[in-house]
Design brief:
Blueprint (H helix, E strand, L loop, with lengths): L7 E2 L7 E2 L5 H4 L11 H12 L9 E12 L6 E19 L4 E8 L1 E6 L9 E3 L6 E3 L3 E3 L25 E3 L2 E13 L7 H4 L2 E13 H6 L9 E8 L13 E11 L9 H8 L18 H13 L1
Antiparallel strand pairs: 1-2, 3-4, 3-14, 4-5, 4-6, 6-9, 7-8, 10-11, 11-12, 12-13, 13-14
Length: about 300
């Protein structure tokens, strides 16, 4: 018999194998190692995406490029800045049989540069088009942006942890999205924010894409590269000095993960080398400093300038 048969991976919700008829009955009973649709598979995938490195001096980098728009009632949206950013990240792997086996705790930093939309050069100052004032640009530096507690496949009661994202099959790969809202006292406000406002309010919307071939080839301990989009909606950046004016900013961006610092775009890569060398590695895993938001970082910088 000289009939040929083709074997390939076809990803549906359960990512089943399609094989030659002579081997189909045996192979169909063998599930892929990683099944993103299950809680256990979603946790393994979480680690495969975020824990590409366990070395704080040689982290995995997620980098992004995008634009920031200003939005006010009764006006057209206005392009304010281009942006380039990076998140260096490394994981400490922790084994706990009572919590389902191997878990992780990530150490990370974040940097995002505000760039001139015409030249793509990092901005030192910016003329506010609504007030006419020339203001100093304070680039986003969140240090640390680390996990305070480790995550495991199961909680202390033995239940599977809630997946950070729900993955769905899409063509030849998988996609997942999530939205997170933050509404809390602003570090730049006083003690009466619940009476007069001034809250820190942000919504972040992310979407992740991974190749089905990478999922099929994955084995425990390996990393999976990914691409992502990130949208951030917030009140005006404090350094813009909008003084309570109505409106908000919308950041839209896209990026991907890499293990090679040389893959970061310009001018981000050169700026890190010249001015932000700490962004080439992560904090220590036992760094006791609290997680820092962009508003916290702005408060520290403004306080430093006042001193």
């Amino acid at each position: 018999m000289n009939t040929r048969c083709l074997a390939g991976l076809v990803f549906a919700a359960a990512a089943a194998f399609a094989l030659c008829p002579s081997k189909a009955s045996a192979a169909a009973k063998t599930p892929p190692v990683l099944q993103p649709a299950t809680p256990e598979g979603a946790f393994q995938l979480e680690m495969a995406l975020g824990c590409g490195s366990t070395d704080i001096t040689a982290p995995q980098y997620y980098w992004w490029t995008g634009q920031v728009y200003g939005r006010r009632a009764g006006e057209p949206d206005r392009l304010l800045f281009n942006v380039q950013g990076v998140n260096p990240r490394a994981c400490r792997l922790i084994d706990d049989p009572a919590r389902g086996g191997r878990g992780y705790q990530a150490a990370a930093r974040e940097l995002m540069l505000y760039l001139d939309p015409a030249t793509n050069a990092p901005l030192k100052s910016w003329r506010n088009p609504w007030t006419g004032e020339e203001v100093e640009v304070i680039h986003m530096q969140n240090d640390p942006a680390s996990m305070r507690e480790p995550r495991f496949p199961r909680d202390v009661a033995g239940r599977a942890v809630e997946p950070m994202m729900a993955w769905e099959a899409a063509g030849s790969g998988f996609v997942a999205g999530r939205a997170k809202s933050f509404f809390r006292d602003s570090p730049l406000g006083g003690e009466y924010q619940k009476y007069v406002g001034g809250k820190y309010r942000v919504m972040e919307i992310s979407a992740f894409t991974i190749a089905g071939s990478d999922v099929a080839a994955w084995r425990p301990g390996q990393r999976i590269p990914y691409t992502a989009s990130w949208t951030r909606i917030s009140d005006w950046l404090p350094w813009m000095k909008m003084a309570g004016r109505e409106g908000q900013i919308v950041l839209v961006s896209q990026g991907r993960s890499t293990m090679d610092f040389a893959n970061l775009p310009e001018p981000l890569r050169s700026e890190i080398v010249a001015r932000y060398p700490l962004m080439r590695q992560t904090p220590q895993f036992d760094d006791p400093r609290p997680f820092q938001t962009s508003w916290d970082a702005l408060q520290k910088e403004l306080d430093r300038q006042r001193r």
